[in-house]
Structure formats: structure tokens, C-alpha cells
Amino acid sequence: MHFKKISLSPPQILVIGFALIILLGALLLMLPISSTTGDSLPFVEALFTATSATCVTGLVVVDTGTYFSTFGQVVIVLLIQIGGLGFMTMATLFSLVLKRKISLKDRLLLQEAMNQTSMEGIVRLIRKVLMYSLIIESSAALLFTIRWAFDMPLGRALYFGIWHAVSMFNNAGFDLFGDYQSLTKYVADPIVNFVAMFLIVSGGLGFIVLSDLVEFRKRRKLSLHSKVVLSMTSALIVIGALVIFIFEFTNSRTLSPLGWGGKIWGSFFQSVTPRTAGANTLDIGALRQATQFFMIILMFIGASPSSTGGGIKTTTFTMLVGAVGSMIRGRTDLVLFRYRMAEERVFKALTITLLALFLVVAVAMVLSTTEDASFLSILFETTSAFGTVGLSMGLTDDLTAFGKIVISLTMFAGRLGPLTLAYAIGPKKGKELYRHPEGKIIIG
């Protein structure tokens, strides 16, 4: 009897790999040793938590700081690290340590995982990813430890420092402060705010941009990709902070009781965190509806390619805004930083955006029939799951079993969607032998 050999494409291997890691994480979190009470976490809740950690989202159905034991918390932070950097990156780390040769198939997988257009220099990029991650997380962990040593014993401060540095850099949004409070008691603390925002932004910029910034002193120039990412990221953070500051300035439940320092830090942090981070210093449920809807837009845009974040990505959003601007000015070419963008790039950006929008709207419509909550809170939760953000208006804990499964699938699609989308809409092999005659329809 002959069995046909199953050949899987790189995206299929990545999807299966992430699914297996999530399943293993769920089984570990179900163990009695993972909880402080010694009880076994139900499978749906364990699967939701493992999915949220591996997909670096941060939505939780049980409080991480009070429900899980040290063992359970370590499992979660390991899932965050593996999910944020990618399991192929971690596998490459072991191969490099053991001095194993990286095969062609492994390089193809790494190319797909890092969303690169070629395999050239892919292993060198992975080395940089690991090095930058270690340096940034270690430095931030030290600063967190020094700050929290004033609030808790040194050993606990060190544990909290390392744990939250990993969580923030990977844009996961999990925290150990208990009672679902995240970083709300540090809303006006400059050290915690600055370190956390630096971790979130550096993790969301993407490792290609980080590499460009590190080598800028030597090369004295940035790539087009880095220019687009840095300019759009800066614009979104500044505009976001300004909008939140204006909308919440007189809100007695958020910014109004705070001093000027707290108002500014709170506005900037809530502008940074929807970019797939998930931590918060203001009560999200207490924000005005206009602010909450604005944050939905920020969450949908998300972080940048080859980063630890989700969303449609800043480069995709830039392409759409640029295309609209070109059309308004009557130009046929989209030009960014004196470079003309290929038409296929614009079509790809449009396709990714429409597919993401369809997914978010479809999931929100389904949940609006199964969950007892306002549509805005459901849309907020759905967008947060798709963008692997982790912010919530308080709905997560009240989701039905069906709702938890749907949100889990949305988180999984949000984390791996860009990979499968890139594979699905990539250029076909070979040339088309004919073209259809051009037709015209009325637009607008």
C-alpha cells in the first residue's frame, strides 16, 4: 500500500504550528498546578487564554494576576514570547545554538513568517530579531524592576519587571496587578508610562525598522519602508493623543480629575496602546463613546509589518490614504517619498483592508445576536480581537461559551491572517496568455 506524501505550503505549516502551540498551552493551563486554588480551568476558558497569549492579544476571561499560579503565569509569558516572535524564530534560535544548518524549507518558512519578499539575508534578520528582543526586554525589565522595587519586595519587583517587559514588547497586554486594573494606578507615573510606551512602540514598529534605526549611524539613510512606518506611526500617535485629550478633557471618570501631567501621559498612553498593545492606564469602559469609536479605528489600523502587532498595518493604511490623495489631486500614480508605488501594492492594500473589514463586521453581527451587550462594546471587542490588541470595554468576562470560541477564532485569524492573505493574493505563477477588453463603468 502506498501513501501519498502530504506537502504543506509555508502558510499552512505556520497555521498548524500556531494551532498546536495554542492547544499545548491550553492543556498546560488546565492543569491544577496552573491555578492558585488548585482547580482545573475549563477547556473553553483555557483555550481562550492560550489563544490570547499566543496571538499576543491580551483579552482575558479570568484575572491573570489572581487566578493563575506562578506556573500558570510562566506558561502564559512563554506563550506570549513564542507567539510574539513567532515559533519559527524560536526554532531557529535552537538551531543556531545547536549549530544546525538552516535548511531551504526552514528559510521559506521564515520568509513567510517575517512577511519578507525574498529569502536573502533572512537568517541574518532572525539573528537581529533575537538580539534586539533580548536587549530591549532586558533593559526595560531592569527599569521596571527599579521602579517597582519602591512598591513591592525586590524579588517580586524583578519578576514583575521581566514578565511585563515581555508582555509589553510583544504587544500582548497581559498584566499581573490583579482585579483587571492593568496599569491604571500608574496613569501619571512618568517612568512606567515611558518604559511601557517605548516597549509597545518598538515592538510595533517591526524588526526591519529597528534594524534600520540601529544601522542609521553607519548607513546614514533609511529604507522607504522605514520612512513610511515611522512617519505614519508618529502621525497616528500624535493625532490619537490630541483627539483623546480633547474628547476626555472634561470627563470626570477619566482625565478630568488628573493633573496636567496625568492628562498628557493618559492621552498619549491610550493613543499608543490601541496599536495592538492592550494595556491601559484609563478605564476603557468609562471613556466617552466618541473616544471608544476612535480607538476602534486605531485598533483596526494596528502596528507595522514584521512586528509583534496585528491590524491591517500602518503601511496598508498609508497606501490607502495615499491612493485617495492621488485620486483627489487627479494623479494616476501613487508617490511616497519620491517613489512610485506599483499598482499591485495598492490592490493588495485594498484587498487586505476589505477582507479585514468583512471579518470584523461579520463577527460583530454574529456576536450581536448571541451576546447581551451594546453593539459598540461588541464591535470594540471584535476589533480588539482581530487587531490582537486586548483592550475591552468589560465584555470579555461576560461572553457566552459560543462568544469565547468566536473571539478565539478572530484572534487566531488576526494573528495569522496577513500571512494567509499574502499567500492568497500573491502574484500567480506564470503570465496570463490573454487580457479581456477594457470596460468602463460609472464610479461615484
Could you provide a short overview of the structure?
Helix content is 62%, strand content 1%. The chain is mainly α.
What structural keywords apply?
444 residues; mainly alpha; two-stranded antiparallel ribbon; 2 strands; 62% helix; 1% strand; globular; membrane; transmembrane; cell membrane; TrkH
Strand content: under 5%
Unreliable stretches (pLDDT < 50, length at least 5) are 1-5
Largest sheet: 2 strands, antiparallel
Say how many strands there are.
2
Question: What is the helix tally?
Answer: 18
Global mean pLDDT: 85
Distance between the termini: 61 Å
Number of domains: 1
Topology as a string of helices (H) and strands (E): HHHHHHHHHHHHHHHEEHHH
Strand order of the largest sheet: 1-2
DSSP helix fraction:
55-70%
Transmembrane segments: 12-31, 74-98, 129-150, 191-216, 228-247, 293-325, 346-367, 405-425
InterPro entries: Cat_transpt, TrkH
Organism: Paenibacillus mellifer
GO cellular component, one term: plasma membrane
What does this protein look like?
- This protein is mostly helical and 444 residues long.
- It has one domain.
- 62% of the residues lie in helices and 1% in strands.
- The protein has helices at 10-30, 43-54, 64-67, 70-85, 87-97, 104-113, 122-148, 154-169, 190-205, 207-214, 216-219, 224-248, 260-272, 289-301, 314-328, 343-370, 375-386, 401-424; strands at residues 335-336, 339-340.
- Strands 1-2 form a two-stranded antiparallel sheet.
- Helix 2 (43-54) runs parallel beside helix 18 (401-424), helix 7 (122-148) runs antiparallel to helix 9 and helix 9 runs parallel beside helix 13 (260-272).
- The radius of gyration is 22 Å and the shape is globular.
- Keywords: Cell membrane, Ion transport, Membrane, Potassium, Potassium transport, Transmembrane, Transmembrane helix, Transport.
- It is found in: Cell membrane.
